[in-house]
């Protein structure tokens, strides 16, 4: 039977002539940090102090002992970052140049020093650039010339920390006669039965050996002989329970086991979990353009999504528990789809396992982002090898529903002056429209593929045409007010978002010794977007009195503006289902403490946007909006049951007076949207008035004027504190009340974000991690809208 021995102990990192202890899996930065050689690059401006690390070559070493009673021993690296030479006792095993794939070396009988020498990623990338020629990119770093996590070279939310190291597990595998080299599972549903086809490939030491494979799933067992190196077995599970996205049903998972046998003796075993479900992508043209609707088990979905970036700029630090925690946060916010963005990595198995169990659909980008990528060697062979490996590796996961060729490169070619600058040079089109769809069609025909995001489906339309396929909405953040989200109805919004700084406690930890201000040195260093602070200021100026000189007030208002901006888009687009079939907010998470578009900051703290997503992505949503000068209430019902009941409308003034009201019957079908016209006499007139809609415990508000024109009363409210709770009772209108729990204690968390209270209303906010409850401290941590 194959035996695997992890190689985790005894590794060293060579530094200045000495051997430092090294952790495997890990990377150079984390080893140097543990040894006290470098400061924490996440604090202050230390990123600059460690820039030299990415420019150097590094050597890892340990002692290899391969003795066993087996015929063959292989040295297997699940991930090497990135350009490296592997030797044992001075004998070259091979050279590698791809972070996104594994590597296997035959080492039978080889004992002695095992050395992995990493070249600087810059050195390798610049050499490829010199060979193949300059290509345009969104950033002045050579990330497109190397198959490496692009965002380690920095992004508009991430630091430039160019890593090297053994970033995924390494082991010795001892085996005899034969081993399983690959299993490709095709999982489908046929007339209510689950069907699994296991396509098996083996590697042999003995060609003449008579082999067989035996597969088990759902109580079914199938056995087949194996001649040569390939076999296929098919199992049928009657009346299989279907796997559903969260909110649509349960997530039953089935254990699949395939055993390789030699004369009834097991040689190797492959085990995975699968789920039975069907997935389609409806891209049919219609009266509105070209659709982009995910269909799971025949059910058409409005995808409630978030974009995922690597959760740490040093991915080896992301544990199974951290994946689970972050993805559970997503599920608890109502998210049902996570897009793994193309400037990062193919995530580890723990990520996809968590998505399988939580019912989170996964849209997987191939790792290409915001650059023209050469299609010549040595890159082309690496791209195909990594695609083939990762497509097969991830196939068992029912959560994976879509392969996407790239992020913004088709758009970049058309709009970012790439075509002129390239002058006919290759730029990646052959990957996205040729190689990658062929690989997916050959290996994983059960899942749809799309060439890019955004992508209209063909060059007949602009790549980012909102009427065709996927759309990225960035003109709003870059140049316009978020009210502009309401100007069109894209078929699927795969990226949009608005920035805000991280939580206050996160800033205090990341900027030691600094009193933060919007333009203080540390704040500016932890703002990576081009003119990011300028865009924040202009966004505030459209709604609030300016300038906002008090940092605490600025911090609060930028958080409010982020939540309101995303709400403006999601409310509008959900109200236009089924024309619009999904929104994917940029972004769920951060990889370090930074001002960014994330809903969860780099220390794992939830911004007000996170709590707003709970409202926006709930099965049922009320939203008031203006269309053709009329005020409409959209009743968005994504639940499986019809939504009926009574709706209360109130026209109010900011001083608490009720100018009029009505009770209206509400009826929205299952997975449908209904619209109710607000009677003309209830429409707010001027900045002193607003509209309130209440139904089934949900509320929608419509203020017709920006905050800077609204004569808010001075907020008055009472605060009561009990263990684990803060209760606020309003004596006036209190708009966008926010308890910043981390100001009470860095470890404290609140269970809700922004809430608006009418006079006499109260809210109880759950607080975890606050050890010394105190009413005055609670009041000081409460923020809300104030008079101009």
Structure, explained:
The model has no long low-confidence stretch (mean pLDDT 97). The protein has 788 residues and is of the alpha+beta class. Strand 19 and strand 20 (289-290) form a beta hairpin. The longest helix has 24 residues, at 551-574. A six-stranded antiparallel β-sheet has the order 3-2-4-9-6-7, with helices on one face. It is globular, with a radius of gyration of 28 Å. Helix 4 runs parallel beside helix 5, helix 6 runs parallel beside helix 9 and helix 14 runs parallel beside helix 15.
Describe, in short, the structure shown.
The chain has 788 residues and is α+β, with helices and mostly antiparallel strands. Helices cover 20% and strands 32% of the residues.
Summarize the biggest pleated sheet: 6 strands, antiparallel
What best-fitting shape do the alpha-carbon axes yield?
A: globular
**Secondary structure tally: strands:** 44
Uncertain stretches of 5 or more adjacent residues: none
Structural class: alpha+beta
β-strand percent reads 25-35%
- What is the helix tally? 16
Average predicted local confidence, pLDDT: 97
Mind telling me the C-alpha Rg?
A: 28 Å
Largest beta sheet: strand ordering: 3-2-4-9-6-7
Distance between the termini: 75 Å
Helical content stands at: 10-25%
């Amino acid at each position: 039977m194959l035996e695997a021995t992890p190689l985790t102990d005894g590794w060293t990192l060579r530094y200045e002539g000495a051997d430092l202890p090294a952790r495997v899996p890990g990377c150079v930065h984390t080893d140097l940090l543990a040894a006290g050689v470098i400061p924490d690059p996440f604090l202050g401006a230390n990123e600059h102090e460690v820039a030299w690390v990415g420019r150097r070559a590094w050597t890892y070493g340990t002692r290899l002992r391969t003795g066993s009673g087996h015929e063959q021993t292989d040295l297997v690296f699940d991930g090497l970052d990135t350009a490296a030479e592997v030797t044992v006792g001075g004998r070259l095993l091979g050279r590698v140049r791809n972070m996104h794939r594994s590597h296997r070396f035959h080492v039978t009988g080889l004992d002695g020093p095992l050395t992995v020498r990493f070249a600087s990623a810059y050195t390798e990338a610049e050499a490829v650039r010199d060979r193949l020629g300059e290509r345009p990119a969104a950033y002045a770093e050579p990330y497109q010339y190397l198959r490496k996590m692009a965002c380690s070279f920095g992004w508009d939310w991430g630091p430039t920390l160019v890593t090297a190291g053994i970033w995924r597990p390494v082991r010795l595998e001892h085996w005899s006669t034969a081993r399983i080299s690959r299993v490709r599972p095709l999982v489908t549903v046929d007339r209510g039965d689950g069907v699994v086809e296991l396509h098996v490939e083996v590697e042999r030491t003995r060609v003449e050996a008579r082999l067989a494979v035996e597969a088990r799933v759902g109580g079914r067992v199938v056995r087949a002989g194996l001649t040569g190196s390939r076999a296929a077995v098919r199992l049928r599970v009657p009346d299989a329970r279907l796997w559903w996205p969260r909110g649509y049903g349960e997530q039953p998972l089935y254990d699949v086991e395939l055993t390789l046998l030699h004369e009834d003796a097991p040689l190797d075993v492959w085990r995975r979990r699968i789920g039975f479900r069907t997935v389609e992508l409806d891209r049919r043209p219609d009266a509105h353009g070209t659709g982009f609707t995910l269909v799971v088990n025949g059910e058409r979905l409005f995808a409630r999504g978030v974009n995922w970036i690597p959760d740490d700029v040093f991915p080896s630090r992301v544990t199974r528990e951290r994946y689970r925690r972050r993805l559970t946060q997503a599920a608890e916010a109502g998210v049902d789809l996570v897009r793994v963005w193309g400037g990062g990595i193919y995530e580890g198995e723990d990520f996809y396992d968590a998505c399988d169990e939580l019912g989170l659909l996964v849209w997987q980008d191939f790792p290409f982002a915001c650059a023209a990528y050469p299609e010549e060697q040595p890159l082309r062979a690496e791209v195909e090898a990594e695609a083939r490996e990762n497509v097969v590796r991830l196939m068992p996961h029912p959560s994976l529903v879509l392969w996407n060729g790239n992020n913004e490169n088709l758009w970049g070619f058309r709009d970012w002056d790439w075509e002129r600058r390239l002058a006919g040079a290759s730029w990646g089109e052959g990957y996205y429209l040729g190689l990658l769809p062929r690989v997916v069609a050959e290996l994983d025909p059960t899942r749809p593929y799309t060439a890019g995001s955004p992508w209209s489906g063909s060059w007949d339309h602009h790549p980012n045409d909102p009427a065709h396929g996927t759309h990225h909405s960035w003109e709003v953040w870059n140049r316009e007010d978020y009210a502009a989200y309401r100007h069109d109805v894209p078929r699927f919004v795969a990226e949009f978002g608005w920035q805000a700084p991280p939580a206050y406690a996160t800033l205090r930890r990341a900027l030691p010794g600094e009193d933060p201000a919007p333009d203080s040195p540390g704040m500016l260093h932890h703002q990576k977007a081009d003119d990011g602070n300028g865009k924040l200021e202009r966004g505030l100026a459209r709604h609030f009195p300016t300038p906002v000189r008090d940092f605490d007030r600025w911090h609060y208002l930028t958080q409010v503006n982020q939540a309101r901006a995303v709400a403006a888009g999601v409310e509008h687009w959900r109200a236009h289902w089924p024309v619009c079939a999904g929104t994917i907010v940029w972004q769920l998470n951060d990889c370090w403490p930074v001002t960014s578009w994330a809903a969860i900051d780099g220390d794992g703290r939830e911004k007000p946007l996170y709590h707003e997503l709970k409202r926006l992505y709930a099965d049922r949503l009320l939203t008031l909006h203006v269309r053709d000068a009329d005020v409409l209430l959209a009743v968005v019902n994504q639940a499986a049951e019809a939504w009926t009941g009574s709706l209360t409308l109130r026209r109010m003034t900011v001083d608490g007076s009720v100018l009029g009201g009505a009770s209206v019957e509400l009826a929205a079908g299952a997975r449908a949207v209904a619209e109710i016209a607000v009677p003309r006499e209830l429409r707010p007139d001027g900045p002193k008035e607003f509209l309130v809609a209440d139904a089934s415990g949900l509320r929608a508000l419509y203020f017709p004027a920006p905050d800077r024109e609204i004569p808010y009363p001075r907020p008055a409210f009472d605060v009561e504190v009990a263990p684990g709770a803060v209760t606020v009772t309003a004596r006036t209108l209190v708009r966008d009340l926010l308890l910043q729990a981390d100001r009470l204690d860095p470890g404290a968390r609140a269970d809700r974000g922004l809430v608006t209270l009418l006079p006499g209303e109260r809210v109880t906010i759950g607080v975890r991690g606050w050890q010394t409850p105190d009413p005055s401290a609670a009041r000081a941590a409460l923020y809300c809208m104030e008079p101009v």
